[in-house]
Specification:
With 395 residues, this protein is of the alpha+beta class. The chain has helices spanning 3-9, 11-23, 32-44, 106-122, 144-150, 208-226, 264-284, 305-319, 336-340, 375-393; strands at residues 50-52, 55-63, 73-79, 130-136, 159-170, 174-175, 179-182, 186-193, 197-198, 233-242, 248-249, 252-261, 288-295, 300-302, 345-353. The protein is elongated, with a radius of gyration of 24 Å. Bound molecules: nickel (II) ion.
Length: 395
């Protein structure tokens, strides 16, 4: 039996898993029960789950029947956390945890990967290498993946595959496209220090608010005058706090923002550009600015032709050329990039939108739900990709 047929057979089981996890969503860094429940499923399949003492998420290794000492190990990843959203889908299996919802579809990722593992276990004896199964916590924090990389999770891995269920993409299409897919996400804080004075006597102080206003305006020149117009770049100041009273010249302003780009070159320059503007503009007012810049995930770029081809061919083999559709790259981010910085990787999308069934809400919306008929495809892709990767690389 091929993976497409096995996925049909396991479809109801995968849907049941999705509905179970959908009812018990847990926030980033709080996924203790989710971790336990996934571990139970893996044990039932004959795998040994490995946990972390001080972190959620888990991993297991499928040792292929035909693996040798030189064989490759492919990692399959699903993220498992939910969001602080009050669910309003009206589903009869809706969230039982008030104020928490699987609004980004990570419940589907858990179910699809469990389905993929189930199928791979049935073909274990044929596998030409090993498959490392990763259920990752805290994706929504933007840096949940970092812990695992720092704790050596990928040290014995040759490549990694992941996919996201996507509400802005029609079911049952899939997308495994070369090039940039999602943007980097780095955050910054600028603190501007001035000197307070009476609001009627600005000449006695240094106005931190006026300096901050100029800094915000100048920051946009990075996008419009430094960046290549063909390369998308976003610089957003999303928060500003300053001043004490309407008639006091403010001595302090704190601004927080985020930068997004698909270009690793531009990403490497952004911190310096923001610092130059913040410090010099502040100085021109006699004020002082300090920048704190925090690096989160880099861009997700499918730049490994061999992996792109294996994913493309795996999808086409099962569901025909028509199952794939283009999807524009986006400025949102995904901490899967932290895995891709360590080993070659590929990241795909599984469409979940179905206007005929009324499923049009996007990820992170309180009405987000999915056309469950795509879950079998996502599960089959995990299995087929891993199988084909090991076959291809052991030639
Ligand atoms: Ni997500």
């Amino acid at each position: 039996m091929n993976f497409k047929e096995m996925a049909e057979q396991n479809e109801q089981w995968v849907i049941q898993q999705r509905r179970f996890f959908h009812q018990y969503p847990e926030l980033s860094f709080e996924e203790t029960n989710t971790t336990k429940e996934i571990g139970k499923r893996l044990e039932e399949m004959g795998l040994e789950p490995h946990y972390y003492e001080d972190y959620n998420g888990l991993w297991a290794m499928i040792k292929g029947g035909k693996a040798t000492a030189d064989s490759k190990t492919i990692a399959l990843r699903a993220d498992i956390d939910a969001l602080p959203v009050e669910e309003h889908t009206g589903l009869d299996f809706c969230s039982k945890n008030p104020g928490v919802m699987h609004a980004c579809g990570h419940d589907c990722h858990i179910a699809m990967l469990l389905g993929g593992v189930k199928m791979l276990m049935e073909k274990k004896d044929e596998l030409q290498g090993n498959v490392k199964i990763i259920f990752q916590a805290a994706e929504e924090s933007c840096y949940g993946a970092r812990y695992y990389v720092e704790h050596g999770l990928l040290d014995d891995v040759d490549a990694i595959y992941g996919a996201h269920i996507w509400g802005d993409f029609d079911a049952p299409y899939m997308n495994f496209e070369a090039g940039p897919r999602m943007a980097s996400c780095d955050n910054f804080t600028i603190e501007v220090e001035g000197v307070s004075a009476h609001g009627s006597a600005p000449n006695h102080g240094i106005d931190a608010i006026l300096a901050a206003a100029h800094i915000i305006t100048e920051l946009q020149s990075i996008v419009s005058r430094v960046n290549d117009p063909l390369n998308p770049l976003v610089v957003t100041v999303g928060e500003i706090h300053g001043g004490q009273r309407f008639n006091i010249i403010a001595n302090k302003v704190v601004m927080e923002g985020t930068t997004r780009t698909h270009s690793p070159e531009m990403r490497a320059k952004t911190e310096g550009l923001i610092r130059r503007i913040a410090e010099h503009v502040a100085e021109s007012f006699g004020a002082k600015a300090t920048l704190k810049f925090d690096y989160y995930p880099g861009p997700v770029i499918n730049d490994h032709e061999d992996l792109n081809k294996i994913a493309h061919d795996a999808a086409v083999k099962m569901y025909g050329e028509d199952c794939l559709k283009p999807l524009a790259k986006m400025m949102g981010s995904e901490d899967f990039a932290m895995f891709m910085e360590k080993v070659p990787g590929i990241f795909g999308f599984i469409g979940s939108r179905n206007p005929e069934l009324g499923f049009t809400a996007k990820n992170h919306n309180d009405h987000y739900t999915v056309d469950e008929s795509v879950l079998k495809r996502g599960a089959a892709m995990y299995a087929q990709f891993a199988y084909d990767y090991l076959e291809e690389k052991s030639k």
